Amino acid sequence: MANSEKQDEKKPETIEFEDIDISRPDILEKPVNRFRRCPIIVTLADPQITPVDIQQMLECGINIVKFKMSYSSKGDKLRMIGKLDKAADACCRKFGISEWPIATCVELKTIVVKTGLLENNADQVKITKGSVVKITCNMDEYNKCNDHNIFIDNPYIESDIPIGTEISIASDEIILHCIEKIDFENINCIVIKGGILKNVCNFCARGISPTRPNITKKDLEIVNFALAYQIDMIVVNYVRNAETIKEIKKHIGNKIAKPLIFCGLCTGKDLENADEIIKECDGVIFARDFLPYETSASLKLRLPQIQKWISSKCLQVKMPINAAEAAVISCAMVANLSKARVIVIPTVSGKTMKALHWMRPSALIITVSTKLSIIRLLHTYRGVMPLMYKDWYEAIEDRVKYAIEYAVQRGWLQYRDYYVTLQRGADNSSFCDMVRVWEVSISKKHLVEC
Fold first, then answer.
1. Cα–Cα separations (whole angstroms), residue 157 to 104, 138, 170, 206, 207
2. 44 neighbors 80 (Cβ within 8 angstroms)
3. Could you give the CA distance from residue 338 to residue 418 in angstroms, rounded to a whole number?
4. How far apart, in whole angstroms, are the C-alpha atoms of residue 66 and residue 84?
5. pLDDT in single tens digits along all 450 residues of the chain
6. Tell me: domain 119-205, CATH 2.40.33.10, correct?
7. Taking the domains of the chain in order of start, what are their residue ranges?
8. Among 213, 263, 202, 277, which Cα is nearest to 233's?
9. Where does the record locate the signal sequence feature (predicted)?
10. Domain 213-317: what homologous superfamily?
11. For residue 117, what are the CA distances in angstroms to 146, 150, 331, 389?
12. Cα(112)–Cα(69) distance, integer angstroms
C-alpha cells in the first residue's frame, strides 16, 4: 500500500486545457495541483491590523497586497505600508532569507459609488421589501444612513439615475427601483428586494451613462502616492475608454519605476471599448463585483461567455513580432512538445518573461533575478514563481541550478522530469536567444531532525 501511494506521488501533474468555471462548487472536489498558478491578492482595509496578522498572511502565500486608498488618510496609508515592511522583515528573520518580495497595489476611486455610514454607529440595518427609501447625495447625511434614508457619494445623482432605473446595493443584497426625482440631491426608490445594509457598500445602477469625469484630482493624488512609495500596481475601475489610461500614463510621465496599470471592466461601455482598453493597459480585471449589476439583465446571465470572450481578446494582442521574441515562441512550443513541467528564465528586467507569458505555456515559469523591484512585479503574473538570487555570477548555469534545486525541494519537479531554459546564448547577446531542454538529475533531499 505504501509503495502504491509513493508511485502515485511521483506521477507528473496532468495539465488539461479545458474551460473551468471557478464559480461552481464542485471544483473543490477535483484533485489539487502540485503548485499554485494564480497569484493571491489580499485587500488590507482595516487600519487596526497588526504586523503579526500580516506576517501570517505572508506565510500562507499571498503575493499581492492591495491598500484601500480612497477612504483612508495619508497617515493610515503610510502606517499600513510600514506594517507590511515589518511583517516582511519578520518573515526574513524567521526563515533565514535576505528578502521577502511582496507586490503592492492601490485602487483608484474613479466613478465608483459607495453608500455612507449608518447612524448611531450601527453595524447594520434591515431594509424592508416594499418600503420607500430616499437616496441622497447631501453631505450632511453622510453618517445618517438608516432604513428610509441612504447617502451615496455621487453628486450627479439627478442626471445619472433616471426614473425606472434598477439599483443594486452590496452586490444585490438590496435591490431598488427609482420612482421619483425630488430635487437635484434626492430621489425616491421603492425596495424590490430587502436585505441588510452595512457601512460603505457598493452602489450600482444598471445601464446608466455616468456624467462624471473618469479621473479626478483625488485619483491623481493616489497615483502620486503610488509613485512616491514605489507601489507596483494601480487598479482602475470604470475605465470606459482608452483615454482614461492615456491620461494616467501622461500624468506618470517618464518615471523610471512605473507601476503596472490594470483595468477593471465594470460596465457595458467598458465591454464595447474592450479592444482599445486591452491594448493600452498592462492587465485586465473582470470585475464581477460591479459588472453583473451595471450591465443589462441579459448580459448578466452570460458572464461566463463574456469572460471567455475577453480572454480571447487578451490572447490576440501583444504577440511576438521580432527575432528576440521568436525565441519565446520556440520556448513555449518546445515546453509543450517535450511535456516539460518547468521553464527557467534568468532575467534582469523581466521583459523576456512577459513575452513568454503571453504565449500561455503549460509549464510553470521560474524566473531568477537579483532586483527586488522586478521580483515584486513578477509576483503579479499567473503561473510565475520569481526567485531572488543574491550573488549574480556570470555563469548562467549556476542560476539555473539554483532554480531547479528550489523546484525539486518544493515538489514541482522530480527526478528525470523535463524542464526548459530560455537564456542568452552568449555574453554579447542582447536578448534571450537560446532554448534548451534538460532532464532533472537531482532528487529531493530529505532532512533528518532530532
1. 33, 10, 18, 14, 14
2. yes
3. 7
4. 11
5. 444 444 444 444 454 544 555 556 665 666 655 555 677 888 888 888 899 999 999 988 888 898 876 667 778 888 989 999 999 999 999 988 888 888 999 989 888 999 999 998 898 999 999 999 999 999 999 999 999 999 999 999 988 999 999 999 998 899 999 999 999 899 999 999 999 999 989 999 998 888 888 898 889 999 999 999 889 999 999 998 999 999 999 999 887 778 999 998 998 889 999 999 988 888 888 888 888 898 887 887 788 888 888 888 877 775 444 455 567 777 888 888 888 888 988 888 888 888 888 777 888 899 988 888 888 888 888 888 888 876 654 566 778 888 888 888 888 888 888 888 887 765 555 567 678 888 888 876 544 433
6. yes
7. 36-107, 119-205, 213-317, 323-439
8. 263
9. none
10. Phosphoenolpyruvate-binding domains (3.20.20.60)
11. 9, 9, 54, 48
12. 13
Residue carrying C-alpha cell 424592508: 128
- pTM exceeds cut of 0.90: no
State which amino acid sits at residue 400: V
CATH architecture of 323-439: 3-Layer(aba) Sandwich (3.40)
